What does this fold into?
Amino acid sequence: MIVGVLKEIKADEYRVAMLPVGVEELVRVGHKVLIQAGAGLGSGISDSQYAQHGAEIVENAEQIWQRAELVVKVKEPLPSEWPFLQAGQMVFCYFHFAADEPLLKAVLQSGITALAYETIQDTQGRLPLLTPMSEVAGRMSIQEGAKYLERPYEGRGILLGGVPGVLPAHVLILGGGVVGSNAAKVAAGLGANVTIMDINLDRLRYLDDVMPKNVTTLYSDRHTLLETLPVADLVIGAVLKPGARAPILIRREDLKLMKSGAVIVDVAIDQGGCTETSRPTTHSQPIYIVDEIVHYCVTNMPGAVGRTSSYALCNVTLPYVLQLANKGLEKAVRENPALRAGINVYRGQVTNEAVAATYGLEYRPLPF
It folds into this structure.
């Protein structure tokens, strides 16, 4: 099979979808790997490192789109790439269709098979290809939130951990999953007072057992949220419904309850965001202010730490790439149910129930 790896063109995206070891493994079993020139530079990987392990370096992205049977990316195809999508081609990346209807329409029209990293689900209900990036984003959310609490960014002018004699910041985390728990670890380690809210009581019990004493758990409901928001200096949006749009937990009118200069870091923005006032931003222009509340809503947070993120991502994606290349789509899906959950679109049909429900489209199960 011909496998193509593209240079990411999304703003401030420095990740790459394959490491040299992935090239070596694919070439070793007879596949051809096309790497776009410069694809790995943002992660500190040179073209020569790919070439010495058997990759063909291709200058033009369009050539890769034309030749590759399986295209492996990090982020979704952008509008400039949509004309290159070819019927019957497999594209394997983060799609996040629930937050991007034009992308979904373009993919449906193209006839490709869209395999979404974020909906691949194992037998225990875990999301193995989303987890490493959620770990990065969760830890980064505190790092970025702490920065934008500084007064030059219109924040409250608060040091997250405080100093002797001065109270630390209060961090509210909405969602106790991978993002939320990683955010809590970092915030607690810096000395902040942390509250995690979730609707899963078993998860809250677990977090209550493993987190340090400066982390409190609360069951998430509307009344409790409204009682907690006025105390928060930094709010982390970390809720997830796999494949579906994130629920809106913080409404526009709720911002008036918050302290002037408080910060919201909406990690759920890839799935539409969990705050009514959230809209996608970039690393170049990461924040905006609504009702004196600083909003940080970067859609590719892990892209800023490309080397760490690329290695973390490729560690988990390579086994699936090898299965698709070695067995083809149908056989790979039959033998690995996790891959079946990853197919969001197949030959012009929506094959993911959550995506179909988001837009009121017909859901079609895979025919194999």
